[in-house]
C-alpha cells in the first residue's frame, strides 16, 4: 500500500516538475509575409500600417498559443491561417493568378519532433491550404498531395470547399495583366527566357511561420499562391520539404520566401539546417551564409525565417525587403519590412 502511494506521489511530482520546467523554458515564434522588391516609395504610410498591424496580429496570436503551453505546430498553424485569410499577402485570399487566370496554392507544415510533414500543391478549392497540409500530415499516410486528389482528400476530411474566385483580388488581377503584357513583349524568346525576364515582383510573395514551444519542439509552416502567371502546373519551393520548409528538433525550423526555383535547386531550408547540424555552427550564421552568399552567387533572391532549439530567431534576406515579425518569450513583438 505504502509503496503504491510512494509511486503515485513520485509520478505526480514528476509531472509537476515537467510542467514547471516547461513554463520556464524559452519559446519563440517568427513569421514572414514574403520577400521582394518592396519599394518604400510604392507603399503609403496607411498601407505600411496595415501590413504591420496584420503581421503583429499573426505573431501575437501564435505567441499566445505558445505562452499558454500550446505546441509549436498549433502556433505556426494559427499564425499562417491568419495570414492566409488576409488579402495583403500572396497566400489564401490575395493569392496571385496563374497564366490562365486561376489560383493554385501550395503549402507545407513540418513537425520537428517526429519529422512528420504534410504538403499540398496546386490547391484550387480549399480555403486554408495550411490546414489541409496539416491534415495530410496527421490523417494520411502520405507527405504530399497534388492536383485533383487534394480536393478529394479535403472532402474526405469534411473540409468545406470554396470556389476558386474566393482567393481573387483586383490588385493581383492587375499584376497578372501586367505580367502577361511583359511576357507577350518577350514572346520572341523562349518561355523560360520570358519568365526569367519578368521583374522580381512577379516571382514573390508567401507567408510562413516557425516556432519553438515550451517543450522544446520546433515546427515550420509555409503557404503561398506561388508566382504570378505561372503555367503548366508549376509548383514552387514552399511545399517541397527541405526547400521552402523544414524543421528538426534540436536544430532548426525554417520557412522560406523567394524565387522558388532557386530554393528547390539549392535545397535552401535543409542546407541551412544541415550546416548548423554538421558544422556545429549557430543557425543564424548558416542561414546568413546560405541566403547572403550561396543564393546571392547563384542569383536567387529571397529570404528565410529561422528559429533554433534555444529560441534564437534570425530572418536574413537578400531582397530589398521582407515582411516579417518575431516574438520571444517575455519580450514584445518586433515587426519589420526593410533592413
Ligand atoms: N517561394 C514562392 C514560390 O516560388 C514564392 C515566394 O516565396 O515569394 O512559389
From TrEMBL:
Keyword Signal listed? The answer is: yes
List, alphabetically, the InterPro entries matched. Answer: Ntn_hydrolases_N, Peptidase_T2
Q: Which UniProt keywords apply?
A: Autocatalytic cleavage, Hydrolase, Protease, Signal
Recorded hits in Gene3D superfamilies, A to Z, give: (Glycosyl)asparaginase (3.60.20.30)
State the Gene Ontology BP annotations. Answer: proteolysis
Q: Where is the signal peptide?
A: 1-22
- Site (Cleavage) residue list: 205-206
Do you know which CDD domains this protein is assigned to?
A: Asparaginase_2 (cd04701)
Q: Where does substrate bind?
A: 234-237, 257-260
Instruction: Give GO MF terms, alphabetically.
Output: hydrolase activity, acting on carbon-nitrogen (but not peptide) bonds, in linear amides; peptidase activity
Q: Does the keyword Amino-acid biosynthesis apply?
A: no
Q: Tell me any Pfam family this protein matches.
A: Asparaginase_2
Write out the catalytic residues in the record.
206
Protein name stated in the entry: Isoaspartyl peptidase
- Whichever gene encodes this chain, its name is iaaA
